[in-house]
Structures are given as C-alpha cells and as structure tokens.
Amino acid sequence: MPADPTPHVPRYLDTTAAVAEFAAAIAGAPALALDTEGASFHRFVDRVYLLQLSTRDETAVIDPLPTGDLAPLKGMVEDPAVEIVFHDADYDLRLLRQDYGWQVRRIFDTRIAAQLLGYRAFGLAALLERHFGLALDKKFQRADWSLRPLSEGMLRYAAQDTMHLLGLRDALHAELVAKGRWGWAQEEFARLEATSWGDEDPAVAYMKLKGARDLTRRGLAVLRELVPWRDGVARDLDRAVFRVVSNEVLLDIAKAMPSSRSELSAIKGMPRGVLESRGDAVLAAVQRGVAVPDADLPRFPKAPRFERDPDFDERAARLRTVRDEVAASLELDPGVLCSRDRLEGIARRQPQSMDELLQTPDLRRWQADLLGERLLAALRSTPSSVSAATSAVGTSTAASAPSARAGRVDDSPYRD
C-alpha cells in the first residue's frame, strides 16, 4: 500500500487579507485539490458555506461568509494550466458557478477515475482506506455548515476532504495509465468541464416528484397547489423543503384530498407543527386543486412516440449482451461501459457505420472505440451469432482486464 504524503496542519482563513495571502503563497502550484461544503440538507437555498483547498504542502479551510467572493482564487481555479482535483465534482461545480461564476477548465475527478477502473466502492472514504489505510471520520457528514462558529472537529473533518486528494489522484492516474484507460478519463473530464445547468421551471416542479405519475389528474392538480405552497414556506424559513413537509406526505395529501383538520391529521407523517400553524393553508391548497375544472386539469407531457418496431426489444437485447460480456471481461460495471439509455438509442437509430454510431447522443468516443464494431455487428447479426461474437470478445480482452474489485454493483450511478 503506497504511503500518503505527510499530512499538514490545515489553516482556517476567515479574512479577505488571509485569503489573498494564501492565494499569493500557492500561486504557481500545478495542481489544487478543491472541495466545498453546502447546506442543502438544512437550507432552502444552497450556497458555498466552506471551501477547502490543498496543494501538496498546504491545506486551507476558507470561510466565505466573512471573506466575500474569494476573488483572489478565481484566476488560479480557472487557469487551464492548473489541474483542479475533485471527488465527485458535479455538486461543487454547480455551487462554484452559482456563487462565484467560476468555470473550472481542467478537472480530475477521483470518483470518475475509480469507476473507470472498475472499483465497486468509490466513495472518498473507501478510496482513501483502500490506497492509504486512512479511516475518515464521518461524524459531520450531515452537519449544518451554515452555522457559526464552526467547531474544531468540523474544521478537521472539512480539511480531510482535500488534504489527501492529490495523493489519491496520483495513485488513480497511475492505474488509469497502466490499464490503458487514461484517454477514457480525459474524455469524461472534458465533458464535465463543459457541463452547464439550466434553471428549472418552478411551474412544473411538482411533476418531478417521484410518485407524481401515480396520481389521478385531479390529484395532480392538488399537488400543483401543494408544492409551491410548501416551497414558499421553506423559502421564507430558509429551511430545506423536506424539513417543512416531505414529498411523500404531499403525495399522500394529494391522494386523500382531506377537507378538514382531522382528515389532514390522519395523513401519516404530517408534521404536527405544520398542522397546528399552517393547517388551514394546506387545506386551502387542497381545495384549490379540487376546484379546478375538468378541462383544465394538468397532464404530463406526452412521451416521445416511436414508430412501432416489433424487433426493437430483440435488437436492444443483443446490444446489451455485447455490452455486458465486454464489461465482464474488463471487470467494469456495465452501466459505466455504456448506459441502457444509450444502447436503446443505438437500437432505435440502427446505425450502419461508425460515423453514424458516433451521432448517438451522449455516446463517448472511448465507448465507440471499445464497442462500436461489435455493436454494429450485433445489429446485423442473429442472436446465435451475437453470442459467439461476444464470447470471442471476452477471450480477446481478458488479458487486459483489471484485478477483481469487491463491493456492490448497484453503487454505480451509471447502473442500468
């Protein structure tokens, strides 16, 4: 097990002068590890409540509440010559773009790297334990980082998220290069750098709730009233929406359509405080939904309609067979190698060449290089010939397969 670089004592920076001094001291560093702490578990509007930054020699835990917009760090974070190392970058990138307008231009994401190497356990704690024998304290995993003052324990916990990240990056990069997968990672990182996030239309937010499609159209009209009411209360209180009323309770109210406090109180999980202080507002929202004329009841947008294709399922199954057998030979999660949605897109489009295949939305070049010819052959083949072809693939790729990884397959966000 390789040794992690000697940990250093983190510095807590809570003045603009201290941030500017630190930025000047680390100028010229070729790589920085970066992490943020938000408070989406506690607050309605999430933002950066803490920013952790490490070089190979120093770690700073920066409090942006008193220090402002962290302008001294902007040039360095956005410099394409400086590699910014994250673990699971999406959340951090969203907050950095939202709060400061930062556009990170050269990313290394240790979570993506671990997934491309076939790791089944790819949380930061699991990776640091695997590579360096470090056991991270998870005591403050759900802490409210918006509160001040921060305890010494919270600051130590926050510093752990970046202090060892550059060493982990080195270990994973070496594995990627050794297994011929560094090009895969570079393509994934480039896509991550180009990510943009659009604003969600609040008028249709209620349709995004899991379980909303199980409601009648009348129930959906009630839910359309309840969600903006709940979110408005959460906004006023600056509290996470589920801490006001959970989605599950809103769905149950939309199904039951209570007309009295006693009926509302019978809803399992209905918060007593909300019932006592805002019960009338909930019942009024229900009545507004009940009163919607039948002609105006909401409905979900129609899903894309595809021309009836009796052979689609069989083609998609052939493509999954190819994908699954190649994934097994490489000891990769099948969803990492190529998602089900992408395979179904290929099955519908029925490309006849690599150029046509590469027009599949979201298909990566590295995925096409690994699977393309075999997928094209599967589209032209009978089920029996596909089985023979994928068996040959397994034989030819076994020599380059990584060592077995222990853990749960369903941990992958790419899973089918």
Top keywords for this entry?
single chain; 416 residues; alpha/beta; 6-stranded mixed beta sheet; 51% helix; flat
Summarize the structure.
By secondary structure, the protein is of the alpha/beta class. Helix content is about 50%, strand content about 5%.
Layout of strands and helices, then pairs:
Blueprint: E1 11-13, H1 16-26, E2 31-37, E3 50-54, E4 59-62, H2 64-67, H3 71-78, E5 83-86, H4 89-100, E6 107-109, H5 110-116, H6 124-132, H7 152-163, H8 165-178, H9 182-193, H10 217-237, H11 247-256, H12 261-265, H13 272-290, H14 312-330, H15 334-337, H16 340-349, H17 354-357, H18 365-380, H19 383-397
Parallel strand pairs: 1-4, 2-5, 5-6
Antiparallel strand pairs: 2-3, 3-4
Helix pairs in contact: 1-3, 5-8, 10-11, 10-13, 14-16, 14-18, 14-19
Strand arrangement across the biggest beta sheet: 1-4-3-2-5-6
| Helix run count | 19
The profile of the biggest β sheet is: 6 strands, mixed
Poorly predicted tracts of residues: 385-416
Task: Kindly name the structural category.
Answer: alpha/beta
User: What is the global morphology?
Assistant: flat
What average pLDDT do the residues reach?
90
Fraction of residues in H or I helices: 40-55%
Q: Which percent range describes the beta-strand content?
A: 5-15%
User: How far from one another are the termini?
Assistant: 33 Å
**Sequence of secondary-structure elements:** EHEEEHHEHEHHHHHHHHHHHHHHH
- Count of β-strands: 6
How many whole angstroms does the radius of gyration measure? 25 Å
